[in-house]
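The authors assume throughout that readers already know how a fold can be written as C-alpha cells. What matters is that the chain and its backbone geometry are given together, residue for residue. A single example would do more here than another paragraph of explanation. For illustration, here is how one protein appears when written out as sequence plus C-alpha cells.
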Amino acid sequence: MSQQVAQPKPAAGVARIPRAVWVLGLVSMLMDISSEMIHSLLPVFLVTTLSASAFLVGIIEGVAEATALIVKVFSGVLSDYWGRRKPLALFGYGMAALSKPLFALASNAGFVFTARILDRIGKGIRGAPRDALLADVTPPSLRGAAFGLRQSLDTVGAFLGPLLAIGLMLLWQNDFRAVFWVAIVPAALSVSLLFVGVQEPDRPRDAVSSNPIRRDNLRRLPDAYWWVVAIAAVFTLARFSEAFLILRAQQGGLAIALAPLVLIAMNVVYAVSAYPFGKLSDSMRPDTLLAGGLVVLIVADLLLAYSGTGFWVWSGIALWGLHMGMTQGVLAAMVAHTAPDDLRGTAFGFFNLVSGIAMLIASAVAGLLWDRLGASFAFSAGAGFSVLALLALGFRGFLAGAVRPQ
C-alpha cells in the first residue's frame, strides 16, 4: 500500500467542529450519566446484596461488554447497506433506556445479567452507526479532535453519573434500587435529544447498496485498518473491566456509598485528556500516543497491584483514566481514516467485534486470577499484557502515514 504524505492542516479548534458532533456528544453524555449511576454501584450491589463472587462479576461484565462490541458488527454492516445511520443509533439508545428499570427490579444475579445484556445490546446497536455518522459529518482534518470531543463529553457523563449515585446513596441510606430508578430520567432525555437534534447527511443519489461483507468489499479494507484492529485487541486484553477498580478500592476499605468515587476519579482524568490527545493525533504520529498510553497503563497496573489503599490505588485509578484519554479517541479516528467511506460502519463493527472478544477474555481471566491468586496478581497480569501490546505496537511502524486524513 502506498504511503500518503501528510499535508499541513489548519489548527483543529473546538469552534470549527460541526454542531452534530456536539449533539452526539451530549447524547452520549446523558446516556452515560444514566448507565454509570447503575454501573458504578453494580459490582458492589452484586457482591454485597446478591452474594455474587468476583469471578461471576467478571463473567457478567465481560459477556455484557463483549455482547455490545459484537453486536456493533451487525449494526455497522446494516448501516452501510441501508445507507442510514441515525435510525439504528436511535433504536439502540432507546433499547438501552428501556433496560434501565430492570436493574431496579433485579432479585438475583441472573436477573442482573439479563438486564446488563439487554442494555449492552442497545449499546452495540447504536455504537458503530453513531461513530460512522460522526465521521460522515466531520471533515477528515478534524476527525481526531471530533472523536476526542465526543469521547470527552461521553466521559463527563461517566463521572457525573457516579457523582449523582454517591449523593443519592448518602441521601437514601444505601438504597441501591432507588438510585437505579432515578437513572431512567437521563436515559429518556438522551433518546429525545438524538431524535430532535441530529440531522443525518443525505445519501448520494448515485449510491448503490451492496452487501458490505461480500468478499470483494472486505478486500477493500486496507492492511493498515486490520493492523489497527489487531493492536486495539491487544490493548483490550491489557485493560479489563473497570469493575475491578471499584472492587480494589472497596477491598482497601472504601465505604459502599463512596464506591462510585472510583469511576468519578478515573473519568475526570479521561474526560479532561481525551479531547487534547485526540486533537494532537491530527498533527502527529498516532502510534507515539498509543505507546505512551500503554506505558501509563503499565504504571497504573503496577500501582494497583502494589496496594489497594491511599495514594497508590488513587494514583493507579487516575493513570488508568489518562491511558483511556490517550488511546480511545485516537483508535476511533484511525479506524475512520483507514476505512472507505461506504464501509465505515462495517469497519467500526469489525473493530469492535475483535475488541469485544478480547474484553470477554480479559475480564474472565482477571476475575479468575482475582479469586484464585488475589487482586495483586490480576493487576500484575494486566501489566504483562500491556508490555505485550507495547511490543506488538513497536513490531510494525504501520501507522506512520497510512492513517493520515487526506
Notes: The first helix runs from residue 19 to 39. Residues 241 and 365 are 11 Å apart (CA to CA). The chain has a mean pLDDT of 79.
